[in-house]
Amino acid sequence: MEALVESLEKKLKTERLTGSEAILKCLIEEEVETIFGYPGGAIMPVYDALYDYEDQLKHILTRHEQGAIHAAQGFARSSGKVGVCFATSGPGATNLITGITDAQIDSTPLVCITGQVASHLLGSDAFQETDIIGISMPVTKWNFQITRPEEIPMALAKAFYIAQSGRPGPVLIDITKDAQQQSFDFTYEACERIRSYQPYPELKEQPLKTATELINQAKKPYLIFGQGVTLSGAEKELKEFVEKTGIPAASTLLGLSAFSTNHPLYVGYAGMHGNYGPNVKTNECDVFIAIGMRFDDRVTGDINTYAKQAKVIHIELDPAEIDKNIQTDVAINGDAKQALKALLPLVKSNDHEEWVKEFHECDKIEMDKAIQKSIQPTSELMTMAEVIHKLSIKTQGKSVVITDVGQHQMMAARYYQFDQPKSHITSGGLGTMGFCLPAAIGAKIGKPNREVIAIIGDGGFQMTIQELGVIMQYQVGVKILILNNSFLGMVRQWQQLFFDRRYSFTEMDNPDFIKIAEGYRIAAQRIEKREELNYAFDQWLNTKESSLLEIVVEKEENVFPMVPSGSCVSKIRLE
Ligand SMILES: Cc1ncc(C[n+]2csc(CCOP(=O)(O)OP(=O)(O)O)c2C)c(N)n1
Q: Would you give the distance in Å from CA 53 to the centre of its chain?
């Protein structure tokens, strides 16, 4: 009887819609409010339908599809919701690929909808036809081509479920133009499970028990957390776990902001340009606990010398990550929050005072050899490090900081003191230059009440500079900080250190960024002198609107410490 009533109710809810209208209805059902996109021939029916849905669905027209996808990524990472983006077939779709790949490696939930040529033209090399399903196959969590409108509700329901469940990731749905135009009887049911897809593995008792024993007996335990903590919302549990066990904790690049950098048990950022202590101590600890991180080579350096002396406990949601790069002694396959909740009552209260002190000794060495020189330079021009250090103090570590890729990215990771969760967004795994400006736009739209600061190099800024148009058109209040060293700085650093200072094609003549910003009606100023910094920061930060600040910095500043690529983490160079 109940089933009959349900099916009748469903029938009553049925509406006759075109495929395009159905797509938009599905988005509304999934509580999507904002779409980032760029139109074109093969997705015109969807854009036409969007015209009538303006009240329910806000569309942000970016200036390039790469801008749309990075904005969707920034939106997803600041808000914790799924980022949605539209593009047309052919070049529109291929322009999404960099961002999709970026989202895949950084576990960002996205639903990308691309238009496709009409189904009777598929495979004919029609105008703007490209096999986006084939192209995106290795860089999406799931992709699917729709050729009949009846497939739309189920495919989109699945897309949202897959994108945000378990380890999140990007999904691409390609829809032929005829499927967008034809009508059908629409009903929608959200997806709650998919056969043979188990996004949340059940925690097993034995590994939890073994991990507890190891943690309770450890003399020198050490913990590194990654973005898995942010994605599972386990910030509180992580803090409780660290405080109860007294274990020193370090962050990966994407883990930054999941734990306050001011906490006494926070020992820094681990990896190639991370802090000295967390790198060196990796090869001295007896129990190594990795939480929601994937042992990226920028963290491990040479895996043959990484934490060899330690018993390794890996808490990780994605089973494919376990034992992929580093062999574990105890694998806890599950959600970080659930795993920490399960461990919390089992682990004993402890403090490892002497051991934690060893990290602080390392901090002193790093302070003397690297930090002091960086944040209080004797040079005439400012350094990136001192600018970011001052910015951190000015904003009290409370802003959402989006960075591009390069030296400024590493300086921000090192010198911005993150005080609140979901405050650091960067392209970690793919290292995509051009990510920052559009991602910052998306992040501000996703979290309108927070101060969003985009920190960009002069190189990366010019990769997606056209997205200033979005800031202008939609009045997005993003603060843009360009650290201008007239070099592709990070590549120059490598050329200096590993290629005999042969600066091959890394020096850049830059345009007048202030005039460009003003052309987009964005307030802008450029400073070169240290005495101007304080006032410039105040002016720049004390507005609700977007504004751009260009700071001319030292041309040949290097980021230290540094673990040379593929080297052992304890061989970290301090200068
Ligand atoms: C799309 C893309 N192309 C090339 C690179 C290689 N790359 C990494 S850092 C970097 C230099 C970045 O220079 P800039 O944006 O000026 O920042 P800086 O390092 O000076 O802070 C380059 C070219 C990249 N990461 N992404």
A: 30
- pLDDT digits 0-9 by tens, 240-292: 999 999 999 999 999 999 999 999 999 999 999 999 999 999 999 999 999 99
Residue with tokens 């883990």: 255
Mutate to test the pocket of ligand 1, among 98, 381, 433 (most ligand atoms within 8 A of CB): 433
Query: CA 556 to CA 544: how far, in whole Å?
Result: 34
Reading the block at residue 329, the tokens are 């002694």
Which atom in ligand 1 lies closest to the alpha carbon of residue 485? 20
CA of 41 to the centre of ligand 1 (A): 34
* Structure confidence by residue, pLDDT tens digits, 93-141: 999 999 999 999 999 999 999 999 999 999 999 999 999 999 999 999 9
Other CB atoms within 10 Å distance of the CB of residue 423: 25
Amino acid at residue number 511:
P
Element containing residue 55 per DSSP (H, E): none
- Around 564, how many Cα atoms within 13 Å sit in the side-chain half-sphere? 10
Q: Would you call 173 exposed, middle or buried from its count of C-beta atoms within 10 A (0-12, 13-18, 19+)?
A: buried
What tokens were used for 493?
């650093």
Q: What are the catalytic residues?
A: 65, 127-128, 177, 490
Atom of ligand 1 nearest to the CA of 411: 21
Tokens of 448: 């309108």
Residue 411 Cα to ligand 1 midpoint, Å, equals 14
For residue 548, list its beta bridge partners.
480, 524
Q: Can you tell me the distance from the alpha carbon of 284 to that of 402, in angstroms, rounded to the nearest whole number?
A: 33
pTM of the model: 0.97
Helix intervals (H) in 285-368: 297-300, 336-343, 353-366
For residue 409, the ligand 1 atom closest to its alpha carbon is 21
**Residue 414 near residue 574, CB atoms below 8 Å:** no
Question: 293: which 2 tokens?
Answer: 């991180």
Angle between helices 19-29 and 152-164 (to 10 degrees): 30
Ligand 1 pocket, Cβ-based, cut-off 6 angstroms: 404-408, 431-434, 457-460, 483, 485, 487-491
The pLDDT score that the predictor gives to residue 11 is 56
Secondary-structure breakdown of the chain: helix, strand, coil percentages, each rounded to the nearest 5: 45, 20, 40
Q: Cβ distance 282 to 257 under 8 Å? A: no
Strands, E assignment, 19-102: 34-37, 58-61, 83-87
Structure tokens at 379: 């040079």
Cβ atoms of 506 and 491 within 8 Å: the answer is yes
Residues 541 and 548: their CA atoms lie apart, in Å, by: 10
The Å distance, Cα 457 to ligand 1 centre, comes to 8
| 358 Cβ neighbours under 8 A, 6+ residues apart | 277, 281, 284
